[in-house]
Structure formats: C-alpha cells, structure tokens
C-alpha cells in the first residue's frame, strides 16, 4: 500500500524514525542498521516501507534499502517470527550478512540476537532456505557462460553467494551473469559484495 516515504527526518530514537511528508509525520519502526544510515535531523531521506496490519493496530516499518526490506518480509513469513523479532535480527546483522547466514545454514549466529532461541533460529534457516534455494535450481547457463550448473546444496562459495542474493530479492537471471564474471575462488562474502556493487551500477 505504501511503497516508500520521502521527506524530512524530524525525529529518531531506538527502532523508530519519523519522516515528515507534506506536513504529516510518518512513524516508521526500523532497525539499528537503518538508523545508523540516516543523516542528521532536518535532512531529506527516503525509506522503503512495509505496512503491517493487525486486528488491533497498524504499524509502518521503514528500511534504508530494498534488500533489508526484503529480508524483513521474509523473516515475518516464518512461523513464530513477528516484526519485533525481525527488527532485532536485522539490527544485529546487515541484510547481506543475514542472507549469507541463511545460505550457509548458520542458525547458531542467529541465536546471538536477544529473544531468538535455537529452535527459532533453525526454523528461520530451514523455512527460508527451502523457500529461496530448494525451489530454485541454480543454473549458470542463464548467463550464457560455460560455467557449469551449481547445486544449491554443494556448499561452495559461489552457490552460497547465489543463494544469499536470492534471499536479498534478486532473480536468477539477474544474478547468474554477474556471478559468472567474478573470481569463483573468492569467499562468499566478497562475491556478494562485488555482485551487489556490479548490479547497482546496472540500475
């Protein structure tokens, strides 16, 4: 319903940023990652938003990047994970780090977030891994490149990077040409960083 808000930053505090647009202040629940990216009060900013509707209230959530918003929406799709828990996780790790945790099935790191137990962390990894990896055959042939197809489960840096980029909301056709042009010997985190940089230039 509300894709984004752009306006003057008039207030920010823990997990909250207020953006004034046309005389109306939009209170956006957000992460520490986004708050750290916001500039001084009085400057113009834009946040990508998600309107969460419940029977007793409506809350607007705002994020600095579309990648962070996408991770938030995926998190709240997991059974037992609400908006508050999703914000806590994305306050502790960046969207890119979260995507890599899911791709590498690292549930243990997620338990470092307050309120996230082992079972919840395992459920997050299992449900999101199934959702974005097992339903997608990672095939580099889409790049028109001789790079062979990679199994999503083979644990290589390239497949982890591919899976993480899927978590961030990119499609196979967007990812494959970029990854096929990178050095496959690089660690997954560096592959993700370079791929995001390359895709940003194409936008």
What does this structure look like?
The protein is an alpha+beta fold and 203 residues long. The protein has 2 domains: 4-63, Nucleic acid-binding proteins (OB fold (Dihydrolipoamide Acetyltransferase, E2P), Beta Barrel), CATH 2.40.50.140; 65-203, DNA polymerase, domain 1 (Orthogonal Bundle), CATH 1.10.150. Helices cover 45% and strands 19% of the residues. It contains 9 helices and 5 strands. It has helices at 32-37, 66-76, 83-92, 95-103, 107-110, 118-134, 157-167, 172-179, 188-202; strands at residues 4-13, 16-21, 24-29, 44-53, 58-63. A 5-stranded mixed barrel has the order 1-2-3-5-4. Strand 4 (44-53) and strand 5 (58-63) form a beta hairpin. Helix 2 (66-76) crosses helix 4, helix 4 crosses helix 7 and helix 7 (157-167) crosses helix 9 (188-202). The longest helix has 17 residues, at 118-134. Mean pLDDT is 85; it is low at 138-155.
DSSP, total strands = 5
* Main sheet makeup: 5 strands, mixed, barrel
CATH class of the largest domain: Mainly Alpha
The residue fraction in helices comes out at 40-55%
CATH superfamily of the largest domain, by name, is 5' to 3' exonuclease, C-terminal subdomain
CATH architecture designation of the largest domain: Orthogonal Bundle
Distance between the termini: 24 Å
Q: Given the structure, what is the number of helices?
A: 9
What is the CA-atom radius of gyration, in angstroms? 18 Å
Alpha-beta content class: alpha+beta
Which overall shape is indicated by the principal axes computed on the Cα atoms?
Answer: globular
Percentage of residues in strands: 15-25%
Q: What's the arrangement of strands in the largest beta sheet?
A: 1-2-3-5-4
When the domains are counted, the total is 2
CATH-assigned fold name of the largest domain: DNA polymerase, domain 1
Order of helices and strands: EEEHEEHHHHHHHH
Q: Can you give the mean pLDDT? A: 85
Low-confidence stretches: 138-155
């Amino acid at each position: 319903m509300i894709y984004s808000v752009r306006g003057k930053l008039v207030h920010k505090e823990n997990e909250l940023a207020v953006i004034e647009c046309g005389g109306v202040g939009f209170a956006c629940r957000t992460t520490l990652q986004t708050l750290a990216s916001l500039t001084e009060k009085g400057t113009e900013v834009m946040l990508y938003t998600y309107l969460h509707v419940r029977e007793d209230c409506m809350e607007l959530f705002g994020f600095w990047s579309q990648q962070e918003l996408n991770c938030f929406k995926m998190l709240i799709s997991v059974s037992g994970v609400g908006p508050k828990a999703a914000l806590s996780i994305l306050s502790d790790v960046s969207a890119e780090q979260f995507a890599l945790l899911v791709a590498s099935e690292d549930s243990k790191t997620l338990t470092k977030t307050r309120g996230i137990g082992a079972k919840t962390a395992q459920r997050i990894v299992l449900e999101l891994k199934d959702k974005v990896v097992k339903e997608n055959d990672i095939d580099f042939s889409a790049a028109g490149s001789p790079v062979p197809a990679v199994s999503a489960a083979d644990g290589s840096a390239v497949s982890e990077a591919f899976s993480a980029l899927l978590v961030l909301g990119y499609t196979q056709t967007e990812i494959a040409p970029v990854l096929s042009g990178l050095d496959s010997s690089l660690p997954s985190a560096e592959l993700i960083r370079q791929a995001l940089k390359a895709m940003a230039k194409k936008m």
